[in-house]
């Protein structure tokens, strides 16, 4: 089969044997796959959890049809349409532990849409509902809201009944579209007065929950934008993986600062999370209340070009790689 892997200097295609599923895995004929920023780290040879380096299968998210199931799998059967995460999705076939798969929520949903959802749904539910305890009536800010997961975070905030949702983007054309995905207010995080604007919109208190995709130099201003006793959940570090941290400000505002990743989760964790996600989101997905825009569709053999598009950061929403049925 044709598959994208990390070569000596970047993404290359190789002819590999079709993988065989282990007892708890499913083998999927990939119909579409979508890009996430973590894919760029693997393309660059960096580690992502335990994976990384030359020869690493590329592609963390995909959709397709189950063509073989491991001996211990009872949740899926051959012919089922699934949305998966793992390694090796930029290929004609890929395997995933069954607990890292979701059934399609709607029989009418296409493969390209399905390829975009599993990471965003799992991430936002775990970060916002399970870790940060988002409840109806609370106020939410999404710092760095124009990525795929950021756009889903805006919608999830509304889904769980947030009374005010603020999103940020540094590009005016993206800010203009945030309201389509649930933002009541759109701000520019490069504006030195963005914290003041948040406080003005929250009667001087700040938001209950700040969902952080930027980190780095934004952490202290983020704490100023959160109310006393509020929460920050860090999902991404697009602005930097380190920065100056005002510990006194953190203590004064009694902020809960929560870390979020799946790289240290077990497959058992994934199974529990999958149940929560389907319970809370599947009805909304069937009604079209949660969605992600697809900015670009490219065939699988243009995966390197797709990665450069993501690196250039000119897209809004998701970039998808497609394969013929």
Layout of helices and strands:
Blueprint: E1 2-6, E2 11-15, E3 25-34, H1 37-43, E4 61-69, E5 81-85, E6 93-97, E7 101-103, H2 111-115, H3 118-131, E8 139-143, H4 148-159, E9 164-168, H5 172-175, E10 185-187, H6 194-201, E11 207-212, H7 219-224, E12 226-234, H8 247-252, E13 256-259, H9 267-286, E14 294-299, H10 303-312, E15 318-322
Parallel strand pairs: 8-9, 8-11, 9-10, 11-12, 12-13, 14-15
Antiparallel strand pairs: 1-2, 3-4, 3-6, 3-15, 4-5, 5-7
Provide a concise account of the structure shown.
This protein is of the alpha/beta class and 325 residues long.
- Helical element count? 10
Can you give the mean pLDDT? 97
Low-confidence residue ranges: none
Give me the secondary-structure category: alpha/beta
Specify the CATH class of the largest domain. Alpha Beta
What integer value in Å does the Rg equal?
20 Å
The CATH homology group name of the largest domain: Medium-chain alcohol dehydrogenases, catalytic domain
**Strand tally, please?**
15
* Known CATH architecture of the largest domain: Alpha-Beta Complex
CATH overall fold name of the largest domain: Quinone Oxidoreductase, Chain A, domain 1
Major beta sheet summary: 7 strands, mixed
Distance between the termini: 15 Å
């Amino acid at each position: 089969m044709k598959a994208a892997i990390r070569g000596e200097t970047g993404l290359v295609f190789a002819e590999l044997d079709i993988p065989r599923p282990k007892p708890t895995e499913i083998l999927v004929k990939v119909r579409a796959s979508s890009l996430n920023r973590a894919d760029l780290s693997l393309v660059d040879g960096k580690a992502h959890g335990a994976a990384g380096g030359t020869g690493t299968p590329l592609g963390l998210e995909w959709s397709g049809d189950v063509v073989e199931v491991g001996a211990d799998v009872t949740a899926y059967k051959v012919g089922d349409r699934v949305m998966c995460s793992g390694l090796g999705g930029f290929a004609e076939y890929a395997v995933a532990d069954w607990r890292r798969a979701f059934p399609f929520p709607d029989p009418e949903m296409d493969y390209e849409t399905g390829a975009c959802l599993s990471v965003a749904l799992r991430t936002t539910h775990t970060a916002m509902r399970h870790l940060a305890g988002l409840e109806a009536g609370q106020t939410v800010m999404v710092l760095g809201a124009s990525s795929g997961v950021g756009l889903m975070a805006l919608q999830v905030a509304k889904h769980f009944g947030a009374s005010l949702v603020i999103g940020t983007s540094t590009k005016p054309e993206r800010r203009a579209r945030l309201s389509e995905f649930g933002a009541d207010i759109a701000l520019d995080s490069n504006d030195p007065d963005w914290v003041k604007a948040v406080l003005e919109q929250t009667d001087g208190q700040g938001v209950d929950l700040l969902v952080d995709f930027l980190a780095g130099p934004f952490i202290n201003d983020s704490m100023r934008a959160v109310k006393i006793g509020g929460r920050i959940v860090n999902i991404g570090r697009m602005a930097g993986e380190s920065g100056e941290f005002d510990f006194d400000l953190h203590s004064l505002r009694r902020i809960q600062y929560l870390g979020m990743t799946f790289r240290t989760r077990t497959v058992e964790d994934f199974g529990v999370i999958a149940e929560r996600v389907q319970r809370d989101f599947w009805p909304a997905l069937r009604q079209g209340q949660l969605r992600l825009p697809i900015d670009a569709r490219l065939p699988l053999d243009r995966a390197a070009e797709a990665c450069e598009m993501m690196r250039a950061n000119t897209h809004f929403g998701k970039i998808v790689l497609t394969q013929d049925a």
